[in-house]
Design brief:
Elements lengths: L2 H18 L6 H14 L3 H17 L6 H25 L1 H13 L11 H6 L9 E8 L8 E7 L8 E5 L14 H8 L4 E5 L11 H16 L11 E6 L1 H11 L19 E5 L26 E6 L8 H13 L4 E6 L12 H23 L1
Parallel strand pairs: 3-4, 3-5, 5-6, 6-7, 7-8
Antiparallel strand pairs: 1-2, 2-4
């Protein structure tokens, strides 16, 4: 038995376990399982390809000669079957998204689409599109590189597009633009949206409300400059975020035009058309101030929300986003779409996968519903 083949099979078994089970143990184990899980839970086919190639190579080189070798091949087959289960859970997302949209927005809102199989199966890590241009490192504030943003727009610059602003995650102490939700940004930009991904000030040098102030600066910047890249003069502005960025997006959506969070730009319009939180932490900030929890800021005139979370999220239990969903639905006159995705871990928005592509389809339909409602007013 070749050591390389045995190592490949054992690693595949670990990946299957980390994908199928939420691991919460000692930090080294958690870190290892978290990293492998967030990658291969979305791209299990890569491991299947590796298992198939290594097994074929082992047979070709005559390494499968004993009963023990045959047992290892059987373990490889079992691991491949487990990876198929992981893939099937991701493929179920389309149906879950459809039902969530129907429940919140009305029957028939959610529709099934054919997933981009070539991209998912062969090019899951390549996010760029030829028809989209990224304009990098535009300044929106005076905090150096932490106040820079990127703009994604269609190369033809069609006029009248809506705007999506995205804030990265990272526990408020790490992370940067141009890393998360790129499949979403490129997809929408390819359809005429103006998409923005922004850095913001981080802990420990800065704390709340500095992050929220930065978020509002980005919204104000978009309202002033997005038209230069193809947005309409009265474009709908959607705000979104991953993990901690989801917290920022929710706070920004629930505090429109609040002057205390807009020092020096108090008169700027920082209202948004809708908010989207992906694997977001939606509770109280580190300082424990109740006013930093979106749950305590819900209001009757809150914009529509779409909140998507994985039922195997290692960092944020589903009870956290559900609390905001419940609070919003009890007060807000706008709909709240809640998508709890089977088998999804934290940071599911990094790659082109069956899961995230289906969710992006849902986000498009959610956005179309919001925009249709605005045009009808």
């Amino acid at each position: 038995m070749a050591a390389g083949y045995l190592t490949t099979v054992l690693l595949a078994v670990l990946i299957v376990v980390f994908c199928l089970v939420r691991i919460r143990g000692p930090k080294p184990l958690f870190y290892f399982s978290y990293r492998l899980g967030l990658v291969f839970n979305e791209m299990p086919f890569l491991v299947i390809y590796a298992l198939g190639a290594s097994t074929a190579l082992a047979f070709a080189e005559g390494d499968i000669a004993t009963t023990a070798d045959t047992v290892v091949v059987g373990v490889a087959a079992a691991a491949a079957a487990g990876l198929v289960v992981v893939a099937l859970r991701g493929m179920r997302t389309a149906r879950v998204v459809q039902l969530a949209l129907d429940e919140a927005l009305g029957a028939g809102t959610g529709t099934r689409r054919r997933p981009p199989l070539a991209r998912i199966l062969l090019r899951p890590v390549f996010r760029r599109r030829r028809d989209v241009r990224r304009v990098a490192n535009l300044s929106y504030g005076d905090a150096g590189h932490r106040n820079l943003l990127d703009v994604y727009h269609h190369r033809s610059r069609p006029e009248g597009g809506p705007v999506l602003i995205h804030f990265h995650g990272g526990h408020y102490d790490q992370g940067r633009k141009n890393t998360q939700s790129l499949p979403l940004l490129y997809r929408l930009a390819g359809q005429g949206w103006v998409c923005i991904s922004a850095n913001y000030r981080l802990r420990p040098a800065f704390s709340h409300p500095a992050h929220l102030i930065d978020a509002k600066k980005v919204i104000a910047w978009a309202r002033e400059h997005a038209q230069e890249y193809g947005a309409g003069p009265a474009a709908a502005v959607f705000v979104s975020g991953s993990s901690a960025g989801g917290h920022m997006a929710a706070l920004a959506a629930l505090t429109p035009n609040e002057r205390r969070y807009q020092p020096g730009f108090e008169d700027a319009d920082t209202s948004v058309s809708a908010a989207i939180a992906l694997n977001g932490y939606l509770g109280v900030y580190f300082d424990g101030d109740p006013a930093t929890s979106p749950v305590n800021l819900v209001r009757a005139d809150a914009p529509p929300f779409l909140i998507a979370h994985g039922d195997l999220d290692e960092l944020v239990d589903t009870e956290n986003p559900k609390a905001l969903v419940t609070a919003l639905r009890s007060v807000s006159t706008s709909p709240v779409v809640y998508v709890e995705m089977p088998g999804a871990h934290h940071a599911f928005d990094l790659f082109h996968s069956f899961r995230f592509e289906a969710l992006i389809d849902g986000i498009e339909e959610f956005a179309a519903w919001v925009r249709a409602g605005e045009r009808a007013i």
